[in-house]
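Q: Structure tokens for this one, please.
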Amino acid sequence: MTASYNSKVFIDNKTFLFKIQKMKRLAIDMDNVIADITEAFLNSHERETGVRLTPNDINGKMEREAFPTVLDWVNTEGYFRHLAVMPDSQRVVKQLIEHYDVFIVSAATQFPTCLNDKMFWLQDHFPFIGWQNICLCGSKTIIKADILIDDHFKNLDYFEGETLLYTTFHNVFANEGRHKRVNNWLEIEQILLP
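A: Here is the predicted structure, written as tokens:
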């Protein structure tokens, strides 16, 4: 278990008492977990082709199969800057911070133009997550935490702790295997909060 410690100061009759509380470390992916990149993909595809895809058109397909020009989009500066926030994620993540050492982890270096976009997006939508708790990396195999919430098996399968598979179009039909499937942030709230 990866432990971190949250120091809290309690004042009792002008005496300072320090209570050290052991907290589990929770790593949370960005795209399709807290940031709705699927909607951006659907919008980009519609702008390019004039065709609005439905969930039935893309469910069970990986990104490049569902959206053939996706690499052009994600390599465009500004693409990640204005993504919608996943419903309930802000409220639940804010509560999780009280119980976990929360880190946002994103394999962002694969698309270098998104690094600034992701940092600004987090500042706008999750200002309560400090820069010290943001990890923009390449391979997530370097992440050491107790729990990982992610939508990709390539990240979850090699993670040594507890794993929550966030349902999205490309994994909706996949057998979750050893991972616990979650469909939304309300389910995460039920699982991880007291």
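A few notes: Strands lie at 3-12, 15-28, 35-36, 84-85, 100-106, 134-136, 147-150, 162-166, 180-182. The chain has one domain: 23-194.
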